[in-house]
């Protein structure tokens, strides 16, 4: 389904967007999303080797789906030039995540492992399900992506685990189990399991299962087009236009 936003109808000014990683799969899709929507302008396209400092007068917000190293480099430039940033990059270390948190004191950032409206609605549902049945269930998360995705588990799967763990008062870093090999002890009910599948051209599928005696509840999201993520990222970029500092999520953008 084609999804268009007319931000002029919201009484907002036209926003100029810069897209990094412009020749990549997500970069190309974000450019397509910008062209499909009214009231926004594609100001800059960036690829490896391009100098962001040279085009600071041509955009208001940077949308970045690249790699941690490049993202942090762009972020440093944005914070000193009054530019906002939408970050969809995943695979950050704990230290790199702290850099993002610290930088948000100087500029406005939307940082989310998944910009899809459906995924962020799923996060809301997961919080509800965990609070109602989580303590009585064995919880497992399965994610599937295309063969080229390099980080595992996906940022979305980790975010889902974090939402569930927080709802149950658990620390994901201590209760997460990433795959099982060989003979082990019986499953600890306090753990949250992760399984990763890579193959083909799957855009992204995530299922969180709550296994209870006699029944099972599953919350699943399946993406068939990267345009769902791209439209969400564009929406986040426009939402940032009246924000000066702060670290925000798609939950904030969608008022969830």
Give a topology summary.
Blueprint: E1 15-19, H1 25-36, E2 40-45, E3 61-64, H2 68-79, E4 84-87, H3 94-103, E5 108-111, H4 117-133, E6 138-145, H5 155-167, H6 172-175, E7 176-178, E8 192-198, E9 204-212, E10 215-223, H7 227-239, E11 246-248, H8 250-253
Parallel strand pairs: 1-2, 1-3, 3-4, 4-5, 5-11, 6-8, 7-8
Antiparallel strand pairs: 6-9, 9-10
Explain what the structure shows.
With 256 residues, the protein is α/β, with parallel strands linked by helices. It folds into two domains: 7-111 and 226-253, 3-Layer(aba) Sandwich (Rossmann fold), CATH 3.40.50; 117-223, Dihydrodipicolinate Reductase, domain 2 (2-Layer Sandwich), CATH 3.30.360.10. 33% of the residues lie in helices and 24% in strands. The protein has helices at 25-36, 68-79, 94-103, 117-133, 155-167, 172-175, 227-239, 250-253, and strands at residues 15-19, 40-45, 61-64, 84-87, 108-111, 138-145, 176-178, 192-198, 204-212, 215-223, 246-248. The strands form two sheets. The protein has a six-stranded parallel beta sheet, sandwiched between helices. A five-stranded mixed beta sheet has the order 7-8-6-9-10. Strand 3, helix 2 and strand 4 (84-87) form a beta-alpha-beta unit. Helix 1 (25-36) crosses helix 7 (227-239), helix 2 (68-79) packs parallel to helix 3 and helix 4 packs parallel to helix 5. The longest helix has 17 residues, at 117-133.
């Amino acid at each position: 389904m084609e999804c268009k936003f007319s931000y002029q109808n919201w009484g907002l000014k036209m926003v100029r967007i810069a897209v990094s990683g412009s020749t990549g799969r997500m970069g190309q899709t974000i450019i397509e999303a910008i062209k499909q929507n009214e009231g926004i302008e594609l100001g800059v396209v960036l690829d490896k080797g391009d100098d962001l400092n040279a085009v600071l007068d041509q955009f208001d917000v940077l949308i970045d789906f690249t790699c941690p190293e490049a993202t942090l480099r762009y972020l440093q430039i944005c914070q000193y030039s009054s530019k906002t940033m939408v970050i969809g990059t995943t695979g950050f270390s704990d230290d790199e995540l702290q850099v993002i948190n610290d930088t948000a004191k100087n500029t406005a950032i939307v940082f989310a492992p998944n910009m899809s409206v459906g995924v962020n609605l799923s996060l809301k549902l997961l919080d509800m399900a965990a609070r109602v049945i989580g303590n009585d269930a064995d919880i497992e998360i399965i994610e599937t992506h295309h063969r080229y995705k390099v980080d595992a588990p996906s940022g979305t799967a980790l975010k889902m685990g974090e939402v569930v763990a927080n709802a149950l008062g658990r620390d994901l870093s201590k209760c997460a189990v990433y795959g099982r090999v060989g003979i082990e002890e019986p499953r600890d009910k306090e753990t949250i399991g992760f399984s990763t599948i890579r193959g083909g051209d799957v855009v992204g599928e995530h299922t969180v299962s709550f296994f209870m005696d006699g029944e099972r509840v599953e919350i699943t999201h399946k993406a068939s087009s990267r345009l769902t993520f791209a439209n969400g990222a564009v929406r986040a970029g426009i939402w940032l236009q009246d924000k000066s500092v702060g670290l925000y999520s798609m939950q904030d953008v969608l008022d969830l």
